[in-house]
Amino acid sequence: MDEKTLNKIENDPNYKKLVQDRKSFGWTLAILMLVIYYGYIAVVAFAPGVIATVVAGSITIGLILGAAIIVAAVLLTGIYVLRANAEYDDLTAAIIKADLAGGAK
What we know:
The chain is mainly α. The chain has one domain (12-101). Helix content is 83%, strand content 5%. It has a two-stranded antiparallel ribbon. A hairpin with a 2-residue loop joins β1 and β2. The longest helix has 41 residues, at 61-101. The chain is elongated.
């Protein structure tokens, strides 16, 4: 890709929106996941009795929370993918269309 095409894409408002939205949304989800994970670790460190509480048979709250963390990670990934497919793909297509319409090589 030549410099002219690269500069054109970088100055495209759709490209700027794509970069900003992805960065903002990605950081939001990452921070949310970190809060969930480190919240669990904090409970383990500061309230181990809560984690050890038996719910049924040999199932403890710690086991349920651990599984919930895994489910939360999968859900957050799914949320990102849904948004990427719904919004980011459209912005990418608009950027490519604008580039092709401009006669880029």
